[in-house]
Amino acid sequence: MTHTPRKRFGQNFLHDYNIIYSILSSLQAKPGEHWVEIGPGLGALTGPLLKLGLCLDVIELDRDLVTFLEDKFRQQDRLQIHSADALKFDFSALAENNEKLRIIGNLPYNISTPLMFHLLDNASCIEDMHFMLQKEVVDRICAAPGNKKYGKLSVMMQYYCATELLFDVPPESFDPAPKVMSAIVRLVPHKQPPVKIKDLEMLNRVVTQAFSQRRKTLRNALKKLIDEEAIIALDIDPALRAEALSLNDFAKLSNLLQELP
Ligand code: SAM
Fold it and tell me: Which residues, judged by CB distance below 6 Å to any ligand atom, belong to the binding site of ligand 1?
């Protein structure tokens, strides 16, 4: 079958065997584990994953590709193909008997952030996740305080997961080649949250507000939410900018705001 890549589904198919091999080697996958692949496309990762002896569920939105995959892998009894939108998919329904899922995907870039947060809503049934994303997004996910890439995505993702950039992937590894560099990120949901948060919505709100104008000091950026004295009482310098604050600092701000009338 010849398939014309569909831009609206973020279709950039991997065709570089060295990169596919590097991804597979970094997974430390073991036979019998339960894996889920998001957006299998033409099966560039699906085939090699199955060769490792895994049980694999794949979720693909493009119906033409589902038909192609059903034909290509029709002999595989360890593979379940789901014709579905990963953004609406109930991942917890795949995890039987308290097992933990291992997730992988060369993700469509246009939905990668909402998809990761949708998965993190089910973090208790996930062992780890390996994703191909735009390098810019991976850098932001993994950035530490003080780094110019550190922002809302860093704080929120690091609340849920340990994050690690594994390696970069150049545009020519894909067909068609995207305009930007990609990278592989490993996300491992924390067994226990690294900080205590009373209300995640409030954390989201304070982080959004603090980074809404990165160059402003906290005293100005958070003026509508909290006054300067209260920031000082939390042992946080109100003259700092949001990019200097740790996850723990954001937790303190959010928990205080939660208590305010
Ligand atoms: N895994 C293949 C590879 O590495 O060559 C394809 C990767 S391609 C970047 C993204 C894949 O995700 C495409 O097959 C696309 O059709 C699929 N996709 C796009 N949106 C999706 C969604 N909401 N749910 C599930 N799959 C989706």
Answer: 9-14, 38-42, 44-45, 59-62, 65, 85-87, 106, 108, 111
pLDDT at 173 over 80: yes
SS3 186: strand
218 confidence band (pLDDT: 50, 70, 90): very high
Q: Which CATH superfamily is domain 7-189 in?
A: Vaccinia Virus protein VP39 (3.40.50.150)
pTM of the model: 0.95
Give the CATH architecture of domain 200-259: Orthogonal Bundle (1.10)
**CB contact at 8 A, 17 and 42:** no
pLDDT at 213: 85
Q: Which of 8, 11, 132 to mutate to test the pocket of ligand 1 (most atoms within 8 A of CB)?
A: 11
Q: How far, in Å, CA of 52 to CA of 162, rounded?
A: 25
